[in-house]
From TrEMBL:
One of its GO terms (biological process) is carbohydrate derivative metabolic process. It comes from Meridianimarinicoccus roseus. It comes from the Bacteria. This is MurR/RpiR family transcriptional regulator. Residues 7-83 form the HTH rpiR-type domain.
């Protein structure tokens, strides 16, 4: 079967399985269990891990549509950088000893890089714009959804009209049709970005709404935001490390509350009174 060259690495391997020779199938099984091995090993090392010949490795990568092992390895590395969790898995499973320290070091580095790129003026300008806007939209997909929910929850202490998208059971169109040029959209676009992310950015531009972008890797189709907030989510494991994104969201939420002034404090006081009346806490 001719491989579909538009497909990513793992999809090509899966498609080829029925047509593979036994030795190639052994290699495919290794790759599917630990596809990240392709990024860090030579063809000879991969052959040794799978207990096959170098010639088998060469035939295998050609069968799935790559001109050489190096081309296949570059494709895996590109997909790793794009955020594919499975491609960051290795057969060298780290021992439990040192896991906490390793994760702490990664988190610390991500926080340093994230905070080092932040600008007080940008954060405060966005916070003031959200306070002044008749409606603020927090939009995030996949991992970004949790951070959109967090920002919506925290800023609603001082903002009277907050919408978090997507909402269960609704299409984006049913909500974004209400977007106006006086609104502020905060789009959280983390790897791996769904195609809908670019559509949301286009909708914000079309409505002439002011648009803030929080992302961990710059995307050409999201260029032109009124405010740009970057975060670093580098990782040594199978999951992206999102402490940097959480830090930005916490900072933006805190500054919005701090800058909300008497009106914001009045809303917070009313919420506390309602808590007492409802006996919720």
């Amino acid at each position: 079967m001719t491989p579909d060259l538009s497909k990513p690495f793992l999809a090509r391997v899966t498609d080829a399985l029925p047509d593979l020779h036994p030795s190639e199938r052994k290699l495919a099984d290794l790759v599917l269990d630990f596809p990240g091995e392709m990024a860090g090993y030579t063809a000879t090392e991969i052959a040794e891990l799978a207990n096959v010949s170098n010639a088998t490795v060469s035939r295998f990568v050609r069968r799935i549509g790559y001109a050489s092992f190096d081309e296949a390895r570059r494709a895996v590395r590109d997909e790793q950088r794009a955020g594919t969790a499975l491609l960051r898995m290795s057969s060298d499973v780290p021992s439990a000893t040192g896991a906490v320290a390793r994760h702490f070091e990664t988190s610390q580095q991500n926080l340093e890089l994230t905070y080092g790129a932040l600008d007080d003026a940008v954060v405060d300008s966005l916070a003031r714009a959200m306070i002044a806007a008749p409606r603020v939209w927090f939009i995030g997909f996949r991992a970004g959804q949790a951070f959109a929910q967090y920002l919506g929850w925290q800023t609603s202490q001082v903002l009277t009209n907050v919408t978090v998208l997507p909402r269960a059971g609704e299409t984006l169109a049913e909500s974004l049709v209400s977007l106006t040029d006086r609104d502020v959209v905060v789009l959280i676009a983390l790897r791996r970005k769904p195609k809908l992310v670019a559509a949301v950015a286009d909708a914000a531009r079309a409505a002439c709404a002011r648009f803030a972008l929080l992302e961990d890797r710059p995307s050409p189709d999201l260029a032109g935001a009124d405010w740009y907030l970057g975060c670093t989510t580098s990782t040594q494991g199978p999951l992206m490390n999102h402490v940097g994104c959480m830090a930005v969201c916490n900072l933006l939420g805190a500054r919005t509350i701090e800058l909300a002034g008497p009106q914001g404090r009045g809303r917070m006081a009313a919420i506390e009174e309602a808590h007492r009346r409802f006996d919720e806490l």
